[in-house]
Specification:
The protein is α+β, with helices and mostly antiparallel strands. The radius of gyration is 34 Å and the shape is elongated. The N and C termini lie far apart (124 Å). The protein has 2 domains: 9-156, no CATH class; 178-242, no CATH class. It has helices spanning 9-17, 20-53, 128-131, 139-177, 228-232, 236-243; strands at residues 61-75, 85-105, 110-116, 119-121, 124-126, 182-189, 195-202, 208-212, 221-226.
Length: 248
């Protein structure tokens, strides 16, 4: 009795195209993709388990997953042959997981919740955007920092708005003292590279004085000054300029 095996057109096309070695390579690629998907899933589950056991809730972290089958293209030819690309369906599992904490944004002058990537090594967590360094911390320490982040952000918000109020006060003060001058605000950098606000009083002559505003009102100090009149003097005019100055 003769047995007939029915084969679909797609199967015929696939097997007509591939050699035995290429079929083996394709099967290896599909198996590897399944292993990677399972590994990614296991890794995520371990991280979630660690966080849950240490007291983290959905207020402290958030994750998304994409568990599906996708179509992938593989080159199943060996290095001695012309490329042979084959499309096939594989297992795929991808995910993203972030820590959530409060942060002050000086651009919008507001406190919001941010999400940041983190890394886990055994039972410790590294999140430089939260901790300010690349050390690995115990989960309990990270959780404590997250819980305290709103208080830190609130203090930064209050300090920023207090400074903003002091700047406005300083600008208005010099506008009243020197109504013909132009008073502007700007940014300046200290020697360590940190940014701070300044108030500059510009006079019609081109001269100016810049102040750094302190934490208290009327506590600003001069950080730069320019005498446009003196800057234009040359030769004996400079000596005459000094000669007319009174002793203080």
């Amino acid at each position: 009795m003769e047995t007939t095996i029915e084969t679909t057109q797609n199967q015929l096309t696939l097997f007509d195209m591939l050699t035995v070695e290429q079929e083996i390579e394709l099967a290896r690629r599909v198996k590897t993709a399944a292993w990677e998907a399972d590994t990614n899933k296991t890794k995520l589950n371990k991280i979630i388990k660690l966080l849950n056991e240490k007291g983290f809730t959905d207020r402290h972290f958030k994750y998304t997953i994409n568990d599906s089958k996708i179509t992938a293209k593989f080159n199943v030819a060996d290095w001695r042959s012309e490329p042979k690309h084959v499309e096939t369906e594989i297992e795929s599992f991808t995910s993203q997981i972030h820590l959530l904490y409060s942060k002050y944004d000086k651009t919008s002058n507001s406190i919001g919740t941010v999400k940041r990537y983190f890394w886990v090594d055994k039972d410790k967590i590294e999140c430089s955007s939260l901790t300010g360094n690349y050390r690995y911390y115990k989960p309990e320490s990270i959780l404590s920092m997250i819980e305290k982040s709103y208080g830190v952000a609130l203090n930064q918000y209050n300090e920023a708005n207090k400074l903003k109020s002091n700047i406005e006060y300083t600008v208005n003060k010099y506008k009243e003292l020197y109504p013909e001058a132009t008073v502007v605000t700007g940014k300046e950098y200290s020697k360590d590279g940190s940014e701070f606000d300044k108030v500059t009083v510009k006079f019609k002559s081109g001269s100016y004085v810049s102040f750094r505003v302190g934490e208290k009102v009327d506590n600003e100090w001069i950080i730069a000054k320019f005498d446009a009149v003196f800057n234009k003097l040359k030769g004996n005019d400079i000596l005459d300029y000094f000669n007319t100055q009174e002793t203080y």
